[in-house]
Amino acid sequence: MESDELTPAERRVRAAFATGTPVDLRESPGDDPSRDGPLWGPERTVRGEVLRALLLDAPPPGGGIPALDLAGARVTGRLDLQYATVEHPVRLRHCHFAEPLRCYAARLRELNLSESALPGLVAHAVHVEGVLRLTRTRCTGVVRLGGTRVDGSLYLEGAQVLAPDAEEPVLQLNQAVIGADVWAPGLRTHGWVRLSGATVAGSVNLTDARLTGTGEAAVDAEGLAVEGQVLLRSAEVHGWFGLRGARIAGRLDLSYCRLVNPGGPGLRAGSATLGELWLRKAPPMEGTLNLRRARIGTLLLEPGSVPAEVMVADLSYTSLAPHEPAGRRLPLLARDRDGYIPQAYEELTAAYRRIGDDRAARLVQLAKQRRHRSTLPWYGRLWGHVQDATVGYGFRPLRALGWLLSLLAVGSVAFAAHHPPPLKAGEGPPFNPVFFTLDLLLPVISFGQEGAFAPAGGYQWLSYVLVLTGWILATAVVAGVTRAVSRP
After folding, report:
1. For 45-104, what is each residue's pLDDT tens digit?
2. pLDDT in tens, 401-418
3. Rounded-to-integer distance, Cα 275 and Cα 253, Å
4. Can you give the three-state secondary structure of 41-85, one letter per residue?
5. Distance separating alpha carbons of residues 364 and 345, to the nearest angstrom
6. In contact, 106 and 126? CB cutoff 8 Å
7. 170, 7, 160: which is closest to 76 by C-alpha?
8. How far is 131 from 133, CA to CA, in rounded Å?
9. What is d(CA 455, CA 468) in angstroms, rounded to the nearest whole number?
10. 321: burial class by Cβ within 10 Å (0-12, 13-18, 19+)?
């Protein structure tokens, strides 16, 4: 494009391009491209076709390092870099774009759109050899970065992507490959965010983010692979956050995070593999916590942050923190949507045993038996209540001794007050109320009293009760102790 066809602003940009000199057209540092950009006059207007020609034409001679470094411009028309190879850094900061920037399948050294306002960004399959900066960028349309490859970091801190009427994800990073971090603290989105299949060599930082889905979904990160951490500290997510099948080597940190999706899933992390999961210092999740088939190294789970409904079938974890009494953990297992999940109780038992808290482990096993009892037919529930009342399913053996001593005291006092007559006068041992009661209570031990004396009337019925109770107690003890001893 000839020089006489350019406006003064465009000639200034062209002259600075050869040496990479920054051009700042702002009248003040407080200029707002989103609000004021459409009103900027010709002195701050640059056509997209002029910028495209600068980037794609041969660099002008001069020995400098060319770069497009422009701030505070109103970019009119379309800046179309589709399939282009751009050898120079592109920095378009604090700019207002009239049309979406198009970089589909382009190869760029660096792209910096910090604090600019755009109606959309079309950058599927773009390859950025350096960093891609969208710091505090405001976009009212869809940002398409699916299949993007960024050798450095992707910066989205303070960015806003607000397109509530879009019928597709408003921020698309599906199948993207990021060579370092996705740095997005304070990100604001209104619409669905898609991260499915993305690979991040560093960490994903969404601290203080506000992510609002327009349907049920807020973030779909199915199959996401992150070598570092995923941080959502103090974030707020309206809609479900999906991490099904994700692999996060470090921790998924939901500390102080608010997840809101009443009546639906809150966190979907089924089949995920996580180094650590931190759910702490946060209000109860408004939605279901789905950790089915997840594999977690350290599960840092505070009971007060757990929602009213969970799904933990086949969940496994190596350690559980913070250390809480079994009574604080057990109500969480009762909230499983699928009902009684034996494996969940076994996993919690193993966690307590690994830290040497055998008492808590026994309480979990006792709770497991009680929960299992509720799934049995009436006769199974009846026998379960007997085992529970007598020996606590074998986990409270001293309870049997208490029953034995109580019944022994009742029988001894009753038969001491009224000696039963002997079966044969002048024969047999002298009557002893304690040994007589023990003969009735202990079915496998004989003191020679039961066969020598015959209670009558109400005392005969008392002897029947003691015999029946003794058999029940003995059977419950054997069944309960066998169950307890069979535990690893």
Report:
1. 999 999 999 999 866 666 678 899 999 999 999 999 999 999 999 999 999 999 999 999
2. 666 667 667 767 776 777
3. 11
4. CHHHEEEHHHHHHHHHCCCCCCCCCCCEEEECCEEECCCECCCCE
5. 6
6. yes
7. 7
8. 6
9. 16
10. middle
